[in-house]
């Protein structure tokens, strides 16, 4: 793999598929790489705090973890709602960089507050603000990746970004626990280090990412300007993508359930239960770029669906009549492949179907649908888990997912990206 | 600003911040090591008390040598020299036959374990825990053990807060997760998905235990039947019960807060009359209390201004006297009556 650090993104995007023809040497714009590094640093910052938060709340603050579940739900909900706003503001102002900057900045400020936060209420506030920042920045950042990438190269660009992002998500907890190994009560040290990473991320974004203005740039190129309207998000193709994403999202249960299921059946998984998510992250990291590249070749929609087949296989993995280390590892690989095939790919799909001047809104809408339906799925599955038992509940969801994938294949058939490559 | 200048500024700031973080981290580690290497804040000895000696066993949280290790003081002289063992535990419970020790196994890949130990500190059995250790108990006759841990670690997971509580015999027979028991509230079986159980306390009858059940944001003191696999609600709003040595009372923490932030008072329930008494402790107590004798309770409270350090307090179970510090720099007390 060759990644150029020359800022060729803009030129490449305008040059269309000229570079796509070059065999082997496919370039990812430096903007995408810087955005990936910014995400990586920010994820190191956020995930290092998230990983030790339960420990901090229970051992250092002496608070019940009852409320921790509440925080976790808050985490997800806040992020989903704000995301729409971030996408809209980005399209409206035609300044995705600075909206994303505001999002990263808000999260960094939350880390400063964390140093002084005491008591449960302020911890909740800090976490909420951190997630607020994440919600704001996601769609404009993905819009920046889109505008900085060659359309034929979009899957790989998102793949590279998500790979770097996942490295951060994997390194964060390890770094936090590394510090706690030396200082068992060193929560403040983790918070300070976390703040440093967040600050570096914000600085790199502010100084090194070019201030792209997708709409103005197109205007300058003499293209017909499509006025910005929120209802443009209701483009029939984008709407159909959102239906597909929602249909599949509602059957995407939280990883936690899969880990719990593995833990119940395999001694190996039970021993390593608190570390299973590291395995998923590693698989996500490994598969992000290859699957993005394949998506560029065979179609993003196809890989998005195949990703859900991997999820289906992961469900089935947990209900096989036999367990053991191999099954556990295969399951984590499938789960990682699912994220690699769907996370960045969804953004790539959404920006192809969104009207030109509404890229960020389109991405935000699709991502919000997924976030909200997954939240519903996890809540609903919790009920199913107790009503039917673990194994039966998973079989039911797996069967439903199989049907949903078949339906999604039909729904996606008529969807063709506007820039047919 | 030219691109080159921006790159230079970004590079310099990045290096400054990251080097600053490393320096801060290394300094913090050095300071911590220094404090840990110092002689303990309290008088200690390495001579371990006899198995039969009446004593209070706890986690030593005095900064310095011996921090985090299981220690004990004579029951008759709780302020005296503490005997510090070589066993690190984050939560400990001891009888005259066994110790249960819950441990955060720190490392880059942090895991959690529960250990059954004999009086000399030899490991007899280890269980992997799904997350941060919470509570542990051994039955008065040293035949049953209970462990509660939080289910944590699933960083991408959206599973709501959960505890896992397991009861088994010291010889390895597992009665399973309390979630597999039938929960009865007001005579009706509750099957809600958000059921959670924690904080087991044993009675002198090995078939009967008490624990906490929670569902729909409410908590209950439940009476457990081990062979019948049922949990029957006895009293609402009661957590982490502890049965008195004579079996007549149950002490627990009771959330008296009217806001979403919990505030736990210590309460004592008279099983014969069903009357509940709140004890005059102003601070919020997040611990499973332990009975020092039939009229005195022990519990831990964090020390102000020092993360990871705490005191064990005592309070009269009839509320007749204000709480006072029982053992300084200590956590997770258990009383071994010999």
Percentage of β-strand residues of chain B: over 45%
Structural class of chain A: mainly alpha
Mean pLDDT of chain B: 90
Which class do the helix and strand fractions of chain B yield?
mainly beta
Q: What would the principal axes of the Cα set say about the shape of chain A?
A: globular
Q: Specify the oligomeric state.
A: heterodimer
Coarse morphology of chain B: globular
What is the straight-line distance between the termini of chain B? 78 Å
The radius of gyration over CA of chain A amounts to 21 Å
Structure description:
Chain A has helices at 9-14, 30-60, 66-93, 96-116, 120-147, 154-182, 187-208, 214-220, 236-249, 255-265, 267-271, 276-298, 300-319, 325-353, 359-388, 390-413. Chain A is mainly alpha-helical. In chain A, helix 9 packs antiparallel against helix 14 (325-353) and helix 14 runs antiparallel to helix 15 (359-388). The longest helix of chain A is centred in the first third of the chain and has 31 residues, at 30-60. Chain B is mainly beta. Chain B is 10% helix and 47% strand. The longest helix of chain B is centred in the N-terminal third of the chain and has 35 residues, at 3-37. Chain B is globular. At the A-B interface, helix 2, helix 3, helix 6, helix 7 and helix 10 of A face helix 1 of B.
Which features would summarize this protein structure in a list?
heterodimer; A: 421 residues; mainly alpha; B: 6-stranded mixed β-sheet; 5-stranded mixed β-sheet
What would a concise description of this structure say?
The complex is a heterodimer of chains A (421) and B (338). Chain A contains 16 helices and no strands. Chain A has 421 residues and is mainly alpha-helical.
Furnish the topology, listing elements before pairings.
The complex is a heterodimer of chains A (421) and B (338).
Chain A: H1 9-14, H2 30-60, H3 66-93, H4 96-116, H5 120-147, H6 154-182, H7 187-208, H8 214-220, H9 236-249, H10 255-265, H11 267-271, H12 276-298, H13 300-319, H14 325-353, H15 359-388, H16 390-413
Chain B: H1 3-37, E1 44-45, E2 55-60, E3 69-74, E4 82-88, E5 91-94, E6 99-105, E7 111-117, E8 123-129, E9 133-138, E10 144-150, E11 163-169, E12 174-177, E13 182-185, E14 188-190, E15 196-202, E16 208-215, E17 218-225, E18 230-236, E19 239-243, E20 249-255, E21 264-270, E22 276-278, E23 290-293, E24 296-302, E25 310-316, E26 324-327, E27 330-336
Parallel strand pairs in B: 1-4, 13-18
Antiparallel strand pairs in B: 2-3, 2-27, 3-4, 5-6, 6-7, 7-8, 9-10, 10-11, 11-12, 13-14, 15-16, 16-17, 17-18, 19-20, 20-21, 21-22, 23-24, 24-25, 25-26
């Amino acid at each position: 793999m060759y990644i150029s650090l020359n800022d060729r993104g803009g030129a490449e995007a305008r040059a269309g598929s000229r570079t796509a023809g070059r065999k082997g040497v496919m370039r990812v714009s430096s903007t995408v790489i810087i955005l990936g590094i910014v995400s990586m640093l920010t994820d190191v910052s956020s995930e290092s705090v998230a990983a030790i938060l339960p420990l901090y709340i229970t051992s250092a603050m002496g608070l019940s973890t009852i409320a921790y579940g509440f925080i976790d739900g808050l985490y997800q909900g806040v992020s989903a709602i704000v995301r729409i706003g971030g996408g809209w503001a980005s399209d409206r102002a035609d300044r995705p960089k600075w909206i994303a900057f505001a999002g990263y900045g808000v999260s960094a400020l939350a880390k400063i507050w964390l140093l002084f936060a005491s008591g449960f209420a302020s911890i909740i506030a800090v976490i909420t603000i951190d997630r607020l920042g994440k919600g704001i920045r996601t769609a404009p950042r993905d819009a920046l990746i889109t505008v900085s990438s060659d359309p034929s190269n979009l899957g790989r660009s998102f793949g590279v970004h998500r790979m770097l992002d996942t490295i951060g998500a994997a390194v964060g907890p390890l770094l936090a626990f590394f510090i706690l190994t030396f200082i068992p009560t060193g929560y403040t040290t983790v918070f300070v280090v976390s703040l440093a990473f967040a600050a570096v991320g914000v600085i790199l974004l502010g100084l090194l990412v070019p201030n792209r203005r997708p709409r103005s740039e197109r205007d300058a190129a003499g293209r017909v300007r499509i006025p910005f309207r929120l209802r443009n998000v209701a483009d029939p193709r984008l709407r159909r993508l959102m239906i597909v994403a929602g249909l599949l999202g509602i059957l995407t249960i939280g990883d936690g359930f899969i880990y719990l299921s593995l833990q119940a059946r395999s001694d190996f998984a039970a021993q390593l239960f608190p570390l299973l998510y590291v395995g998923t992250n590693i698989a996500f990291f490994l598969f992000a770029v290859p699957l993005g590249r394949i998506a560029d070749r065979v179609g993003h929609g196809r890989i998005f669906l195949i990703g859900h087949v991997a999820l289906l296989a992961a469900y089935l993995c947990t209900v096989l009549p036999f367990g053991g280390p191999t099954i556990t590892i295969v399951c984590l690989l499938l789960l990682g492949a699912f994220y690699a095939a769907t996370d960045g790919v969804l953004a790539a799909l959404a920006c192809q179907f969104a009207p030109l001047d509404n890229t960020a809104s389109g991405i935000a809408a699709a991502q919000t649908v997924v976030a909200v339906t997954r939240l519903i799925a996890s809540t609903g599955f919790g009920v199913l888990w107790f009503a039917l038992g673990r194994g039966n509940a998973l079989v039911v969801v797996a069967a439903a997912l199989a049907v949903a994938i078949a339906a999604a294949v039909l729904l996606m058939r008529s969807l063709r990206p506007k820039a047919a490559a | 600003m030219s691109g080159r200048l921006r790159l230079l500024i970004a590079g310099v700031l990045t290096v400054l911040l990251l080097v600053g973080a490393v320096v801060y981290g290394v300094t913090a580690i050095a300071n911590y090591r220094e404090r840990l290497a110092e002689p303990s804040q309290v008088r200690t000895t390495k001579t371990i008390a006899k198995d039969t000696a009446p004593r209070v066993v706890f986690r030593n949280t005095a900064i310095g040598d011996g921090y985090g290790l299981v220690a004990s003081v004579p029951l008759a002289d709780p302020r005296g020299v503490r005997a510090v063992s070589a066993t690190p535990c984050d939560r400990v419970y001891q009888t005259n036959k066994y110790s249960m020790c819950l441990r955060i196994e720190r490392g880059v890949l942090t895991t959690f374990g529960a250990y059954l130990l004999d009086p000399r500190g030899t490991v007899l059995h280890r269980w992997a825990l799904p997350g941060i250790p919470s509570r542990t108990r051994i039955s008065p006759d040293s035949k049953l053990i209970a462990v509660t841990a939080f289910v944590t670690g699933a960083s991408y997971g959206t599973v709501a807060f959960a505890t896992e509580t397991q009861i088994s015999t010291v010889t390895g027979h597992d009665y399973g997760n309390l979630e597999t028991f039938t929960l009865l509230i007001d005579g009706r079986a509750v099957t809600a998905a958000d059921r959670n159980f924690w904080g087991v306390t044993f009675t002198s009858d090995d078939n009967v235990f008490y624990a906490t059940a929670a569902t729909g944001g409410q908590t209950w003191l439940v009476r457990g039947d081990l062979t019948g696999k049922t949990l029957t609600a006895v009293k609402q709003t009661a957590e982490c019960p502890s049965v008195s040595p004579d079996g007549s009372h149950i002490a627990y923490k009771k959330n008296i807060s009217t806001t979403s932030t919990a505030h736990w008072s210590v309460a004592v329930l008279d099983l014969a009359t069903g009357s509940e008494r709140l004890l005059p402790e102003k601070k919020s107590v997040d611990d499973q209390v332990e009975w020092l004798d039939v009229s005195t309770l022990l519990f831990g409270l964090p020390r102000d201004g020092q993360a990871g350090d705490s005191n064990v307090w005592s309070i009269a179970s009839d509320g007749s006297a204000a709480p006072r510090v029982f053992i300084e720099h200590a956590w997770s007390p258990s009383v071994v009556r010999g």
